């Protein structure tokens, strides 16, 4: 698992030098959720608020996310992807899919099926903490 995590971090850096694995994960969650508060990100990924705060600040400086007032409570700031954030997330997602497809291209169908079953089983075991930078 350690090798798998290290490889994921390395690939994230190669696919977009400004986008760490944690940043990619946070952007993906913002896309899926349609936006959320930084405290929601921290709770969802079981991360320290200061870790999320640093990541959010870096993503905001890079122009990948923006803060908007919550329509129901203007005291609350909700994080959303910018157009640039959406483009980079899509680019990195495509690159990751291509890398995985290339890595598995010569695997027999039976091995792919078993691998997919194991991943489903592993992922179904419940959420775990995300590695931090």
Q: Which key terms come to mind for this protein?
A:
mainly alpha; elongated; 2 strands; 133 residues; two-stranded antiparallel ribbon
Tell how many strands the DSSP assignment holds. 2
Look at the helices and sheets and give the structural class: mainly alpha
Computed CA radius of gyration, to the nearest angstrom: 16 Å
Q: Which stretches are poorly predicted, pLDDT < 50 over at least 5 residues?
A: none
Indicate the proportion of strand residues. 5-15%
Order of helices and strands: HHHHEEHH
User: How helical, in percent, are the residues?
Assistant: 55-70%
Number of helices: 6
* Sequence of strands across the biggest β-sheet: 1-2
- The mean pLDDT is 86
The largest β sheet comes out as: 2 strands, antiparallel
For the termini, the CA-CA separation is 17 Å
Shape: elongated
